[in-house]
From TrEMBL, chain A:
Residues in PDGLE domain copies: 234-324
Protein's name in the database: Fused nickel transport protein NikMN
UniProt keywords, alphabetically: Cell membrane, Membrane, Transmembrane, Transmembrane helix, Transport
Compartmental location: Cell membrane
BP GO terms, sorted: transition metal ion transport
One Pfam family, short name: PDGLE
This protein's GO CC annotations: plasma membrane
Coiled-coil regions listed: none
Residue intervals passing through the bilayer: 12-28, 40-62, 69-98, 104-126, 138-164, 176-202, 234-253, 300-320
Keyword flag Nuclease: no
Topology with respect to the bilayer: Multi-pass membrane protein
From TrEMBL, chain B:
Encoding gene, per UniProt annotation: nikQ
Protein name: Nickel transport protein NikQ
Superkingdom as given in the UniProt entry: Bacteria
CDD domains assigned to the protein according to its UniProt record, in alphabetical order: EcfT (cd16914)
Major site of localization recorded for this protein: membrane
Originating species: Symmachiella dynata
Membrane topology, as annotated: Multi-pass membrane protein
Keyword Cell membrane: yes
GO CC terms in record: ATP-binding cassette (ABC) transporter complex
Length: 334, 215
């Protein structure tokens, strides 16, 4: 998964390296502010652990291939976002310096994709979700979702960087579809491993998790209210899942029609395709954002159309659900 | 666990090992950037650089077999990425992009492989520090490198214990679960160890500042 040299152009590498250096520097400063002398041993040991954990092979159905932990979200969940970003960065540096895994010029790109977007972004998702689900099970669920998204986000970043590198003769929407399909499977593995590992840690030493109450007897806290499926929470979680599916899968579905259009163009009857695309607002499930030629706009518009459609359906469902609420009549009686 | 099982040839004493470390880093960096900027039509340039790397590998006493084994692991990874380019156009166009990626990728990989096999990690760290790596980052890296081997040994002990207690073949889900439990327990043990080490460091006067003998 590490990007080797030669894939991303040096200009993009330089830009990404500057961005990564800024983010890593910021993380260092945040750590210095909050932590005491413990930062160096804890972060270093976590890096060693993630490095060793990646050597544990998880067998797949296809026999000779196996997967392993990536560990970005796991490190963030245990040590917090800033140390998590550092851990991923350092693991990448050591892998480069010991195995020549991942390029030298491309190191900044790798750090950005996995450390900044993966660990910091993954932690943001995790922390946001955990607000809704503060129980241990909710913590695991949030981490699982964040781990899956972090892998997907890293692959999306790769596609963007590849596009910026100015290569010729490839189709970005299809490359995006290929990468996303592939990495949504990898992400599934990462999510599962992260969830399993975290459940072990929460079972044995819940105080190790960042932001979790300490086990110290001296600082007793009232027990946390366990998570309850209030209608609002259920609705929000359902909506988020639906939006994620719509946003991610909608562009794919149209990826095939892209291929069709390419064939049509070759055969010379592209005049018939998109004869009048702007009759309806959501014609062909696309919001008319710009020219049909620009791939990004077309993909983005499909995504927006998908998300908009989902929101509309959701709003209708909410309105309908209001009338069918089981407690409505009972409430009147009392 | 032997100290150099990760980069087995880094502690030799050839002319390449004796070159100044910063010079080596900058040389490899310059080579990779050249490889990235020279268009693939000028393939003789890439050829010359490949020959130079090959010569450097020979001078450093890195056996051909090791190089081939590493390339065997590297090739499927970059091939998987490179093949995605023609695959995205339905295998009609994009073959030249794939060739470019393969050419530049393999060349750069060999360059870095040479660098890490003629420079031990601790010297590389000093050189990177001299090239502007922040001190705290260098300190955490040094700590991490020190404990990678300890954590590996711990993992190996735990795996051996599991092997001694597991008599039947596991199903897929069970294998995943026990593997994750292995990592989870390793995480807890590592964090415990970090706390012990931290206590020992504090007992010896550690105040968060890293001091080395030459600073």
């Amino acid at each position: 998964m590490h990007i080797a040299d030669g894939i991303i152009s040096p200009e993009v590498c330089a830009g990404m390296a500057v961005a990564s250096a800024g983010a890593v520097g910021f993380s260092l400063r945040q750590l210095k502010k909050t932590e005491t002398t413990k930062t160096i041993p804890l972060t270093g040991m976590m890096g060693a652990l993630v490095f060793a954990g990646q050597m544990v092979n998880f067998p797949l159905v296809v026999a000779p291939v196996s997967g392993h932990l990536l560990g970005g979200v796991l490190a963030s969940v245990i040590l917090g976002p800033w140390a998590g970003c550092l851990v991923v960065t350092l693991v990448l540096v050591v892998q480069w310096a010991l195995f020549a895994d991942g390029g030298m010029v491309a190191l900044g790109v790798n750090v950005f994709n996995m450390g900044v977007v993966g660990a910091l972004g993954g932690y943001a998702v995790y922390a946001g979700l955990r607000r809704w689900m503060p129980s241990p099970r909710g913590t695991i669920t949030s981490a699982i979702i964040a781990a899956w998204l972090s892998v997907l986000a890293a692959s999306t970043m790769f596609c963007l960087e590849f596009a910026l590198s100015g290569h010729r003769d490839y189709s970005l929407p299809n490359l995006f579809a290929l990468m996303t399909t592939f990495h949504s499977l990898i992400g599934l593995g990462e999510a599962l491993i992260t969830g399993f590992v975290l459940s072990v840690v929460l079972d044995q030493r819940p105080d190790l998790v960042y932001g979790q109450p300490s086990l110290d007897i001296m600082e007793t806290e009232p027990p946390r209210r366990s998570w309850q499926a209030t209608p609002l929470r259920t609705a929000v979680i359902g909506l988020m899942i639906a939006l994620a599916v719509a946003g991610f899968l909608a562009p794919f579905a149209s990826g095939y029609s892209d291929g069709l259009e390419a064939v049509a163009e070759k055969m010379g009857f592209d005049a018939q395709v998109d004869a009048d695309p702007q009759v309806l607002v959501l014609d062909e499930y696309q919001v008319p954002l710009g020219s049909e030629e620009s791939w990004f706009m077309s993909k983005l518009s499909v995504s927006i159309a998908g998300i908009g459609g989902t929101l509309a359906v959701f709003a209708i469902a909410l309105l309908l659900g209001r009338g069918l609420k089981p407690g409505a009549e009972a409430g009147h009686a009392t | 666990m032997p100290r150099d099982f990760l980069d087995p040839y880094s502690r030799g004493n050839s002319i390449c090992h004796r070159l100044p470390d910063r010079l080596k880093i900058l040389l490899v960096l310059a080579m990779i950037i050249t490889a990235l900027f020279v268009p693939p039509e000028n393939w003789p340039v890439h050829g010359c650089m490949a020959a130079a790397v090959f010569l450097a590998m020979t001078l450093a006493g890195i056996p051909l077999r090791y190089l081939l084994v590493r390339l065997m692991f590297f090739f499927p990874m970059i091939m998987g990425l490179a093949i995605a380019v023609p695959a995205s156009t339905g295998f009609t166009k994009g073959w030249d992009v794939m060739a470019t990626v393969l050419l530049r990728g393999t060349l750069s990989f060999m360059g870095v492989l040479w660098l890490v096999n003629v420079t031990p990690f601790d010297r590389l760290l000093v050189a990177l520090r001299q090239l502007g790596l922040p001190q705290m980052l260098a300190a955490i890296l040094a700590f991490m490198y020190r404990y990678i081997f300890v954590v590996f040994d711990e993992l190996e002990r735990m795996r051996e214990g599991r092997r001694a207690r597991t008599f039947s073949k596991q199903g897929l889900l069970a294998a995943w679960k026990t593997n994750a439990q292995l990592i989870g327990m390793l995480l807890i043990r590592s964090m415990n160890r970090a706390e012990r080490v931290h206590g020992a460091m504090c007992a010896r006067g550690f105040d968060g500042e890293i001091r080395t003998l030459d600073s």
